Amino acid sequence: MAATISLLALLVLGGWAGLRVRGALAAYRDVRADVAALEATRPADLARLNEGDLAQIASDLARLQHDLRRLDAALTPPAGAALVERLPGIGPRYAAGRRLIRVVELLARAGRAAAEVTRETLIALQATGVRRAATATGPTWLEAVQAQQPELDAIVAQVEEARQLRASIDPQALPAAARARLSQLDRALALVAPLRAVTEELPLLAAALGGDGPARYLVLFQNPAELRLSGGFPGTVALVTLERGQVVAYTFHDIYALQQAYLAGRQTPVPAPWPLAHYFRHAELPIQDATWWADFSRGGAQLAAMYGATGWPPIDGVVGLTPAVVRDLLALTGPVTVEVDGAPRVITAANVDAEIERQRFVHGSNPAAETHKAVLALVGQALIERLTAADRGLLLEVARALRAAADRRDLQVYAVDPQLQAAVDARGWSGRLEPAPGTPTLALSAASLVTNKASRVVAPHLTLTVAPPHAGRRAVTLEVALAHTGDPSADPYHAGYQRWWLEVRLPAGSVRQDASHAPLPDPDAPNGGSYELELAPGQTTHFSLRFSMPDASQLLLRRQPGLTPVTVVATTPGCRAPLTATLTQDLTIDLATLCR
Q1: Both 215 and 238 in a single domain?
Q2: Closest C-alpha to 273, from 304, 257, 295
Q3: 16 and 163: one domain?
Q4: Each residue of 53-84: pLDDT tens digit?
Q5: Among 517, 570, 565, which residue's Cα sits nearest to residue 543?
Q6: Rounded to an integer, what distance in angstroms lies between the CA atom of residue 224 and that of residue 377?
Q7: In a domain, 434, yes or no
Q8: What integer pLDDT is reported at residue 37 of this predicted model?
Q9: Is 268 helix (H, G, I), strand (E, B) or coil?
Q10: Between the CA of residue 554 and those of 7, 441, 442, 512, 587, what are the distances in Å?
Q11: Residue 115 belongs to what H/E stretch?
């Protein structure tokens, strides 16, 4: 019976098909040619697209849209597509084919609109740049994006409709040639999927970049040679002001100038954390140590609150940078030249640390000479000048480098605005101690308790032995070896004695059983305890701790910014092939398959 119905339907439609088949074939050939042309002209680097390229892409996509509509019209019978879709046998294939055409048409429409939005943004960027100029007129790149919010919302809606239609297509109902192309279509959908989050958060992004008025940030240049729990001692800071997506002002300062302003204006002292009071004898928390805590979001909030007493211009957030970020930027921009002691010095990614520290060796404690902090400020100024004059390709490379730095916690952000801070948290850029809520996390955080600059010569090694689960829990042994690689005969300021403060945060629900060192009476200690470790040049100090944790399939090992990269061995009792890694970013250990 089904075969008879299908045959009758084909006979009825035969006359219509004969008239339309030529148009359908022509439209199909044109669609294939359009797609081939787009693939042939696809640039290897999207960052290098210019306004002309984008205009051509928009035109090509418009032609593809037109030809897809021709094909769809040619495949639609006079009585409507619904009749054919209900036919046994050919109905599902016909419906899948038309849905596929619709998916591609939606993506072509969204791509065309996106090309136009990008083109308008690039025109504004070319005209006004990322640094305010008195002679510049017209909208900035950020204003151009904001003005096109309705277009962006429409693009997101089209992509979402395309995604839902694609999910409803049965690949087996498609011809083999179309089925072979589905993976390309899925890749395209995956590439544009993050656009929804970007569009939804555009108002927050605009506010962060000064779209609603000046946005000012206190940038901390953290020196890991004097290690702190959140990265390093912030001896140099900068105030950077953004407006309408452009840098409008920046100034560099010694952190102690900020401390003097704070002391002159503060009414109620903030109590110092136990280690700062005990080892540094601080009667109150100084502003240079306001980001003492391993959780940068906590320290950033404390610093922002204390900053309010300085009388300096108000800030919208705090940003912490380790030297790795400066090295990454110099690798992209190329060398910069600064004048130090009346002579030019060429600063590169390879020598920037040595050039900054050079002043200590050349001048010692001479108060009249340029300090290492002054050199860092000069390098920072040269970098900002280079970046604000950069072309679009370099700016995009810089944006990628900064994002990578934030992902590995070499760049950490605290925002005063709660909504913006929530967005920063969601991306893992706020430096929180629990980067992935819900995932068991082990965090070891260290800080130097002496005032020399020898922290970088300490090489940490960590061994984690995780027993199989028993009664819903796992026994874990944590062993830490700190090798002081400093030369005992070298300058003690850069290679001398270290006293380290070590905090251990165990996964939620863990129970500390014992440790090689007695925990210190720190009221702020995490659940694993706080410890003091002494490190002599040329020697290795060992620390161990045993605990039990709830059974879990994964364990996240958190990376501390500024700490010399930790070598990690994760194993189980009797394991012959343990997991080995260097902690350059957070490491997720699969406990279920460890050593199997």
Answers
A1: yes
A2: 295
A3: yes
A4: 778 888 888 888 787 788 777 777 765 656 55
A5: 517
A6: 17
A7: no
A8: 77
A9: coil
A10: 58, 9, 11, 19, 10
A11: helix 90-128
Q: Which residues are bridge partners to 319 per DSSP? A: 219, 413
Helix (H/G/I), strand (E/B), else coil: 431: coil
pLDDT at 443: 98
Tell me the three state secondary structure of residue 501.
strand
Assess if residue 435 is contained within a domain. Answer: no
> Strand order in 441-448's β-sheet?
530-535, 498-505, 441-448, 554-558, 587-590
DSSP calls for 63-112: HHHHHHHHHHHHHS-TT-HHHHHTSTTHHHHHHHHHHHHHHHHHHHHHHH
Please give the pLDDT value at position 8: 35
Q: Is the pTM higher than 0.85?
A: yes
Residue 271 lies in a domain: yes
Is residue 189 included in any domain, yes or no? yes
User: What range does the domain containing 549 cover?
Assistant: 441-590
Residue 274 CB coordination number (10 Å): 16
CB atoms within 10 A of CB 425: 17
In this structure, the answer to whether residues 416 and 327 fall within a common structural domain is yes
Mean pLDDT over 556-560 rounds to 97
What is the Cα–Cα distance from 249 to 317, expressed in whole angstroms? 16
Domain-ending residue, one of 175, 200, 225: 200
Mark which of 148, 178, 200 sits at the end of a domain: 200
Angle formed by the axes of helices 90-128 and 392-407, nearest 10°: 110
